[in-house]
Design brief:
By secondary structure, this protein is mainly α. Helices cover about 55% and strands about 0% of the residues. It contains 7 helices and no strands. Helix 1 crosses helix 3, helix 2 packs across helix 3 and helix 4 packs across helix 5. The chain starts with 7 loop residues before the first helix and ends in a 19-residue tail after the last helix.
Amino acid sequence: MATTPRRPQAQRHRDQLQQRRLRAAELFAAGVHQADVARQLGVSRQAVSTWHGRWTAGGSAALASRGPTGPSPRLDDAALAVIEQALKRGAVANGFVGEVWTCERIALVIERLTGVGHHPAHVWAILSYRLGWSVQRPRRVATERDQAAVERWVAADWPRIKQTPTGAKPDWSSSTSPRSA
């Protein structure tokens, strides 16, 4: 199971920034002045000066992206695969009453399976960004609902209730603009 990147938009942004720095490296190699590089790429001279110093010290590889910042995820892809399989088995199979998943329940399952505790609010980030899941809300229908009685009411009573008195026309609410019917 391949998980989605932690933050796909951030990854795209990082790639765009890296492309801009590598383009600067090409311009440096071609002998273009730093001020011209800044103008062509639409960045500050200070940024180009920093890039030039790195490029001089380590070549184009020194301008490559260093990857995402921040701590590494506490759950690797293998652990996420185990969690996803457990969630697909259902809430009852995981020891809960009823088939509704909540973030609190999923946090308990994650802690049981991996030993890693997550705040229930963070569980949603794991589900959406790492596993690619979306919110699924159950339809709310009254258990004592009598569908046949509802259909009879809609067919017989609702038209009578909705009907306006004989010959009546709806009033126009605007006193400044008469109805143009």
